[in-house]
Each structure stands twice: as structure tokens, then as C-alpha cells.
Amino acid sequence: MSKDMSYAGVMSRRNEIMKNAIGIDYDVFESGGISFDYEKMMRETGYTLEEMTKIQRSTGVGNTPLLEMKNITKLVRKISPEGKGARIFIKDEAANPSGSFKARRAANAVYHAKKLGYKGVIAATSGNYGAAVASQAAMYGLKCIIVQECYDSQGKGQPEIIEKARKCEAYGAEVIQLTTGPELFYTFLKLLEETGYFNASLYTPFGIAGVETLGYEISMECREKFGRDPDVVVCTNAGGGNLTGTARGLQKAGADLVEVVAASVDLSGLHMASDTQFNKKSFTTGHTGFGIPFSTWPDRSDVPRSAGRPLRYMDRYVIVTQGEVFYTTEALAQLEGVERGPAGNTSLAAAISIARELDEDKIIIVQETEYTGAGKHIQPQLSFARDNGIEIRFGDPKDEVPGENIILPKDPSYIKANDIDLNKLKRSYIKNCIEKNPDSHVTKEDIQFLAEDTKSSVEFVESILKDL
Amino acid sequence: MMAKAGDWVLIHNIVLKPEERAPQVPDDTKKVPLECLVKGFLIEDGVVGDTVRVKTITGRIEQGTLREVNPTYTHDYGKFIPELLQIGITLRETLFGGEDNE
């Protein structure tokens, strides 16, 4: 009998397909309800920091330069009150083989696939992760398929995503380009079933553990250079893995006092699965369309339990506008002589704002950069926006309306990151946990888990539960 | 345009028709099919517009409408955005220019 290949048919085989494609039995860590043993999952299916470092070094991943943004820091001090303006550094992750920090995640995932004997790897991604998986697969001699959401129904595609397809193909990967819609996941499942390849998901324990080396390196380098840990590390937040891995790496270094700040580009009001709004956004990652839903429900990812759990590690969450990030990208090139892709500069834009709040002796680390080039540069992205009817002008970024305009700050003092109410996100996550598990009685263990998963307390969780 | 077996081509197919789309899809997306573009080596001769089969770079067989032979990347740096010039000029002026520097 042939298999049911309809949308509903394939989706109903989801768990079985995933089990074969990841080699992890998630049931082992389950309690049967809301809670699960996160640390056990990370310990038993991940790798130790030493192992990960060794795996990454063997393919030239990691150990990237930490660059001081001397002129940007000077600029910040010019627009700050006397004595304010922290030193800003960037961890130049564009120096990784595939051009972004995602090489760290891919290095471990692809190593793991090779070790388990899979013939190939598949990843569903429009972003830098696809290039990273393709690059690592090339090094290990594995086949690679990248599934992308690329075009609207008119066949128009974001220059950034098209460039990423080129990069994947340059590394020998097969790229499957789809039009807008969440059924990308359906195509992904069909391919896993057809090929028997490994799901190099962004959200497996090895994928997240791969980023731990980034947090660890930051702490070690700062101790070497300044004799202490940084005060703030800003992480661009989309699916949550970047922040989770970095924060875990900092903890493994014993850098417990570092404030971990999430930063996303504000795309509020734009529906991520809308065909007509698809090309109205100028950022394809690192934005609130991923950052908020993945923070408040991390297990929406392509594995039963996501290893990326940002609320567990986040001390603060700020949003910046598209205009602020494009402006910052140009500032980075013009003032520091470092030309990098815009998406990776989301956290740099946030850092410029945060630095103004802090004393001059404080240290902020922006923990990533990404490669740039045709398609993946401010010029084609703004040009594409203008062609799609988006107004581009100088002004006050607070007047920016995603999908309508991109407002470049009149001057750097107009770069102002806005705080998201973390307690609201935590409440929303707890509410989601209850709604997704309607039959389960909330146990003491569940409350303890929710407190840990939201970096709060048992009292906080209990007060939220009482309100629901 | 005629394509020979073995040529590197781009094909197009419909993954889901509008009525087959996922229930959670927004209304505007539900009106259109989910389309797919894949590249591969053509298995038998064909003409652009024909339904053909290809062998992809990973060795999978895919079927679809022949779109393009030797598909080209057309993305570039886009049209010039003059506003970008002003950012560098004003930032350098703020940082290095003015009275302090004369």
C-alpha cells in the first residue's frame, strides 16, 4: 500500500519521521506533562564543551577575532552624558568558514550525522544556517539538501534569500526553493522520508551545544584582555538557539554575572506566512516574527523538544527598527572599516543604544557578525524595499511602521532600543504550556520546571497560574 | 528553447494546490498554490514548458515543468540608494570633523 502523501497524511507521520531523522528518543526525557528533563537531554545527547571545541577546530570553526569598535564607542560617548558610553566589541563570526556563527551549530550537527552513519543531511532554513550545513557537509563528504521559503506567488524573492541559495549551491548542496507558507515543513518531512537523511535541525541538543563554544570563547578572551568578564553580551534573537547556546557557554566559563540581552528587529504587524506581506519585510531573520513566538513557545520548532530555550537565559529583551540596523551596518563599514551583512548587526544597533546607559568602563560584547555580498547587503535590501513600495527616509525611527517605511535615524542619538516586557513573555509562555497540555494536572515538578524555563521563581509561576 | 538530456536545468512544480493548503495558512496565501523550484540534470530531451524529469545534485528524481536551461543567478547589489552616502559623510563629520579637528 502506498503512503498517504497529502498534507494531513504526512503531518500525521511527523513523530515517526523525526525519530528516524534525528536518532534521539525524546520520550526518555519526558515527564508525561509540561516538564521534561532539559539538562539530561543536553547532557546525554549533546557533547561536552571540550568535544565540541575539538570538533569545531577540526573544520576551522570558532576562535574568531574579538574586535574593539573604537570609533563607534567614541561616537556613542559624543552623544551620551558625561562618563557614559561603554566600550563596544564585536565577535567577528563572519570569519567562520560559511560566514556566520551558524557554522558552530552546523559543525556539531553534521559531525553527529556522519558519526551515526547518515548519507546526507537536510535543513529547512532560508538563512545562514543553510550555508553552514552545506559547508560542513562538503567537508565531511555528506550529501546536503536545503529547503528554503524563497518567493511570493509572483515569483519575486528577497535578494538575501536568493544569495543564500547561491552560497548553498556553491558548497554542493541541493536547494529546494518554495513559495511562502508554513507547509515548508511538509516538504521537509517528505524529503526526510524519501532520502533517509539526517535532520540537521537548528534545535537539537548538538545544534545548540555548538554555540556554547561562542559564549565560552567570549568569556576567556575578555579575561585574557581585560582580566574580567564582559558586563553585557547582546545576542540577536530569532529561534532562540543563538542566545541559549551563548548563555550556556558563558555559564560553563563561570561567567555568571554577565547580563545576557536579546535583540530583535521590530517586524510587528507583518504576518510571517502571508503571501502579500512576504516581500514587505527587509529582514528574513533575527526579527520579532521569530523572536517572540519562539520565546513564548520554543517547542513549536521541528523537534519534539527544542534545545533552544531563550527565556531560560534572557535577562533583558530589546527591539530595534529596520532603519536603525541598516544605519548601523553603514556606520560599521564607514567608521570601523568592517563591512558585514545587516542581519548580524541587529545586536550592534542595540549595543549602541545600551552603551549610552552604561559607564565608560563597562564592556559590551556583540556576539556575532555575518558575511555580506550581492543580495545580502544593505544596498540590494533597501533597493528591493523601495521597489516594493516601502518609503525610505531619514527621521525618527520611532515613526517606523514595518511594511510601510524604513526610517534611517537622523543622527546616531536617534538609535534607541525599546524594552519588551519580559514578565509578559514569561506569562505568555506559561499560558502556552497550560493550553498545549489541557489534560495534564500541573505538578510540583511542572512548576519547578516552569520557574527554571522562565528564569523566574516558583512564586512567580504560581502567581501566574492563579491568574489564568 | 530545446534542452538535451544531461543539461543542467531549473524545473517548477506545484507542491500543494490552493485547496490542499494547511488550515492555519492566512487567507491571502490560501488563494495561491505552494510552488517549488528545483535544479537538476535533465533525464530526457525537452523544450521549455514541457513536463520533464531531472536528477538533482543529490541524486533524487524530481518532475516538473522545464523553466530554464543553465539557470543563472540574477541577484545583484540593486539600484543605488543615495541616502546611504549621507550616513558615512555625517558620521565622519561628527567624529573627526568640525572645530576640534582644524
TrEMBL record, chain A:
Its cofactor is: pyridoxal 5'-phosphate
**Which Gene Ontology terms cover its molecular function?**
lyase activity
Segments forming domain Tryptophan synthase beta chain-like PALP: 58-366
Q: Which domain of life is it from?
A: Bacteria
Q: Which Gene3D superfamilies does the entry link to?
A: 3.40.50.1100
Q: Which Pfam families match?
A: PALP
**Residue ranges crossing the lipid bilayer per the database entry:** none
Biological process (GO) annotations held by this record are: alpha-amino acid metabolic process
Record's keyword terms, sorted: Lyase, Pyridoxal phosphate
Q: Which InterPro entries match?
A: AKP_thiolase_beta, Cys_Synth/Cystath_Beta-Synth, TrpB-like_PALP, TrpB-like_PALP_sf
Spell out the protein name for this chain.
Answer: PLP-dependent lyase/thiolase
Q: Which organism is it from?
A: Anaeromicrobium sediminis
From TrEMBL, chain B:
Organism of origin is Anaeromicrobium sediminis
Under NCBIfam families, the record lists: ornith_OrtA (NF040739)
Protein name per UniProt: 2-amino-4-ketopentanoate thiolase
Specify the superkingdom.
Answer: Bacteria
Q: Which InterPro entries match?
A: OrtA
